[in-house]
Amino acid sequence: MISVIIPAYNAEKTLYKCLDSVIEQTYKDLEIIIVDDGSTDGTADIIKKYTKRYNYIKCIHQKNAGVSKARNVGIDNAQGEYLYFIDSDDHIENDTFGSLIDADKKHSLDIVASEIIDENGTSAIRNAFAEVSDLYADTKDEIGRNAFFIRLGSAVGKLYRLKTIIDNGIRFIENIDLAEDFIFTHTVLLNSCSIAKVSRSRYIVQNINEDSLSKRYVKNIEKTVELQERILLKTFTMYPAYEDIWKKRSMDIKANNCIMIVKNMFLNDCPFSWREKMDHVHGLIDRGECEIFRRMSKENGPKTWMDKIYAFIFGLGSPSVICLFFWLKEHLKRIIINHNKEVS
């Protein structure tokens, strides 16, 4: 049985489509655990309708505590052999679970990944993820060479063996609001013996919920990027081939951290004034943290057109230019999301 865990916060506009996509799966041995994270809209009413109609759907209501707490509550209440996380503003195609279970029956896997398709118009997907459509790995070298291609930056769209998670005490970190997926998936990987990806299992990202944490300012982000870097380096130690692939496909870790820190100041709910944002960027420059963009080698330098733009902007060393760029980028992103919401 698959325990499908769906955290929901103010998801009345998207929850119907999400739940229907799970209910309509060709694979039927499911339990659906919806964790209502203190919603203030009509989410609870929608959930009530579904729990009355389908006896394999259950809801757990909690005070608003964030997606990590909601997912952990789902894990603690799961009865299945497998876990699968879905965000309430995403959906899956109808043979998603059947394809994953077929793969597991052949190989007995710890992680089986769906193909993740972005439909919200805001993500420039790296072609690298699609370079490998189907894969199976069960040695350290094979796992290291293939782990990058199952998109470990996100916990959704993957079938996890529950025993692996329970036996190793793996949970989402609840006191951070960014990179909790990255840390969780890499921790699972560190305790896995086999992974796979099945391209005909498709997870559709829409990400149009205005209340999504991915669109909100995160406090203490420096602590978060430090945790993320630590788990990544630990993974490199266990799977040296993963580091090789990462360097070929991704920009330098510290450069990415710098981008995350500045980007965070231009997300919703950031309390800083424009002057404070400028001062913060000036501090990064004074401490030499932006120098990495000038010193990057071809091996760990920009890999995508967006990375090249970041490297150019940071390389200028101008707080005003850097701030203006990130403000414009987030402003355009919100325009696109609002347009897509109107269309859908």
Explain this structure to me?
It is a single chain. The protein is built from 15 helices and 9 strands. With 344 residues, the protein is an alpha/beta fold. Helix 2 (43-53) links the parallel strand 2 and strand 3 (57-62). The longest helix has 25 residues, at 319-343. It is globular and about 60 Å long.
SSE blueprint and pairings:
Layout: E1 2-8, H1 15-23, E2 30-37, H2 43-53, E3 57-62, H3 67-77, E4 82-85, E5 91-92, H4 96-107, E6 111-118, H5 127-130, E7 135-137, H6 140-146, E8 158-161, H7 162-167, H8 180-190, E9 195-205, H9 221-238, H10 240-249, H11 253-264, H12 274-286, H13 292-295, H14 305-316, H15 319-343
Parallel strand pairs: 1-2, 1-4, 2-3, 6-9
Antiparallel strand pairs: 4-8, 5-9, 6-8, 7-9
N-to-C terminal Cα separation, in Å?
32 Å
Q: Unreliable stretches, pLDDT < 50, 5 or more residues? A: 121-128
Structure class: alpha/beta
Mean of all residue-level pLDDT scores: 90
Tell me, briefly, the overall form: globular
**What Rg is obtained from the alpha carbons, in whole angstroms?**
20 Å
Order of helices and strands: EHEHEHEEHEHEHEHHEHHHHHHH
Major β-sheet annotation: 9 strands, mixed
